[in-house]
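Batch manifest, entry 17 of 40.
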Amino acid sequence: MSGQGVMRTARLAIAALALGGWSLPAAAADATQFKAAYEAAVAANREAGALKDQWTTTAAALKEAEAAAAAGKYDEAVRLAQQAEALAKASIVQAKEQNEAWRAAVIR
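Output type: structure tokens
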């Protein structure tokens, strides 16, 4: 990937993280909210895997979310699950972008 491509991907990841809906609910999160956030993150990560572009940072965030939930820290667990979902979505964007960039560079 070119330097410009790396920078664009980094900007996409930052944008995804910033817009990833990390706001916590007014009341403390509970196990149900964690489960919903975690399932959304796993689904996005599964889609990234189908595109062969899963990021290791996504897997790490999912593990941290599980650990926080196991410790009963649901606010943190929800935040980490939302972070994992944003990372997975950014990796999906990257995969699609790279697929198009390859075509543009090779097929003329």
